[in-house]
Automatic annotation (TrEMBL):
One of its GO terms (molecular function) is oxidoreductase activity. GO terms for biological process: deoxyribonucleotide biosynthetic process. The chain crosses the membrane at residues 158-179. InterPro entries: Ferritin-like_SF, RNR-like, RNR_small, RNR_small_AS, RNR_small_fam. Belongs to the ribonucleoside diphosphate reductase small chain family. This is Related to Ribonucleoside-diphosphate reductase small chain. Keywords: Membrane, Transmembrane, Transmembrane helix.
Amino acid sequence: MEPIVNNVMTGRLQLFPIEYDELWDMYMKAKAAFWTAAEIDLSKDLTDWDERLTENKRHVISTVLAFFASSDAIVSKNLVTRFCREVQIPEAHYFYTFQAMMENIHSEVYGLLIDTYIREPTECFTLFRTIDEHPTVKAKAVWALRWIEDSSSFATCLVAFAAVEGIFFSGSFSVIFWLKKWGLMPGLSFSNELIVCDEGMHTLFAVMLYHTLKQPLPAEAILEIIRGVVDIEKAFWDGTFKSSCLGLDVDSMKKYIEYVADYLLDGLGVSKFYNSVNPFEFMELISLKGKTNFFK
């Protein structure tokens, strides 16, 4: 059995002395980056939404926000239901409980964004039920939820949720960063910057914790998880991009997803699989790096 995953009666209950310095440092960084939904000013976004975004652009942004609103709740559920129950080291408990709070704030922000931009009640209600209404969003949610209740090992679930936050989120983040490049939707863009920084730390923490495991997964098992996520994510963009949007196209998005997947594989100690070049000059893997190169 993994030393960090053991019976609660034999686990450490006291935080000090710190035994996992890198994990504790990540908690301190996450705490220093704390923010709340009240810091987001959406007052200037509605003019852009109504006058500068086409119907196609609004469709893509609405779908992205609806996915995020549901996905953060799934991540939080996994933290509370599985990770905090299985991991028995205080350094990880501190990080995971703080992360769960931040995921709640992310969900709150996405809900506020939808409620602000979508003023037609039926459409708004549909977006809040996207997991039931949108097939490719549902596929992403079903894939993530399966790991919470099944009998897979902690290592497997850890890699799976690193892929959720590191890959499922990356394409959607890039769309919002593209809006910022064109000076659109400043409130949405600012919230995206804050959330991307958080998610970068969450993905990094998963990679760090994975490297503490004494029984890591075979490379083939990790690759199978990552390839499964990539295939689902590509299908999501096939269903979301009706045509080229904001100068982005589905083929470039798929290449970007492969590029991000290779980066995560490398972080987990597995050889790159796709060997794709980053097609988006405006993105520097922010969703995996944050403000620094986390895997170096």
